[in-house]
Amino acid sequence: MAARAEVRVLGLGNVLMGDDAFGPWVIEQLVNDWEFPDGVTVTDVGTPGLDLTPYLADADTILIVDTVKAEAPAGTIKVYSREQLLACPPKPRLSPHDPGLTEALFTLTLGGCAPRDVVLIGAVPEKVEKGVRLTPTLRKAVDAAVSEVVVQLIKLGLAPRRRTGARAAVSPWWERPAAEPAVVL
């Protein structure tokens, strides 16, 4: 019997920086609306910087959801293959929290434990600034990115199932109002 493929769906982004929270938002929506077959994990990895490497190591396929810089209107979904990602030389890191995706892939390739396939599903952000809300433009793009993740999983023969029953709209933990403090007497 063949071993089951290991596919990791990873959301990258800082939930405190407006549209940069796109990756975590997509992960929240996926977990809320879909059930995944064995072999598929769906994880919000935040802003790991060079610590992204362990999330990628030894997987068959990685689907990454993040914001991307591209010459396109805000909210545009762009899909990049592993070959497209590796064709671009690593860029200077501006902070220790920069994703370092290309660097991580090069490191894992040299170590012999790189994922066989990588797909980056990115959205062009409108605003990346302090705040815990996506702009309406990027909020609308969440559904398109969720659909693209589902399509990619179907292509791999690992179709998720939509959850049954009425589910509340996604309200990620970072956008929920703080609970009232307990009264201590």
A few lines on this structure:
The protein is of the alpha/beta class and 185 residues long. The chain contains 5 helices and 7 strands, in the order E-H-E-E-H-E-E-H-H-E-H-E.
Question: Mind explaining what this structure looks like?
Answer:
- The protein has helices spanning 22-33, 53-56, 82-87, 101-111, 136-155; strands at 7-12, 34-35, 40-46, 61-67, 77-81, 117-123, 161-162.
- The chain has 185 residues and is α/β, with parallel strands linked by helices.
- The chain has a single domain, classed as Rossmann fold (3-Layer(aba) Sandwich), CATH 3.40.50.1450.
- The chain has a five-stranded mixed β-sheet.
Structural key phrases:
185 residues; alpha/beta; Rossmann fold; 5-stranded mixed beta sheet; two-stranded antiparallel ribbon; 7 strands; 29% helix; globular
Which series of helices and strands comes N to C?
EHEEHEEHHEHE
Q: So, the CATH homologous superfamily?
A: HybD-like
Strand order of the largest sheet: 3-1-4-6-5
Separation of termini?
63 Å
Mean pLDDT: 86
- Largest sheet, described in full? 5 strands, mixed
Shape: globular
- Provide a count of the helices: 5
| Top CATH class | Alpha Beta
